[in-house]
Design goal:
The chain has 96 residues and is mainly alpha-helical. It is 35% helix and 4% strand. It has 3 helices and 2 strands, in the order αααββ. It has a two-stranded antiparallel ribbon.
């Protein structure tokens, strides 16, 4: 079982940018110790032969064909431009 001392709990709170009053540090240390103990228990579970999964329900993501297109929205996109010429955004020259 892993035990977290008060100094480690104080450091974790500082790194997490959490303001923890001094009187709450013992409770935080206890909770962190319980979390570490639970993680150690999970490490003891035999997972040989268990396939990794991304979801508890078997499903396949929707797919679309991977094709290159211009989006067919050039006119709509350029309609927002303050200055557009010949199908491109026109910007002022910044280099002399």
């Amino acid at each position: 079982m892993s035990e977290i001392d008060l100094e480690t709990a104080r450091k974790v709170a500082h790194l997490a940018r959490i303001a923890v009053p001094e009187d709450h540090l013992p409770a935080l240390a206890t909770e962190l110790s319980q979390i570490l103990t639970f993680m150690e228990q999970l490490g003891e579970v035999d997972i040989a032969g268990v396939e990794p999964m991304t979801s508890v329900t078997p499903m396949r993501l929707k797919r679309r064909p991977d094709g290159v297109s211009d989006g067919n929205m050039q006119a709509r996109i350029l309609s927002n431009a303050p200055d557009a010429r010949e199908g491109f955004f026109a910007v002022p020259k910044v280099v002399e």
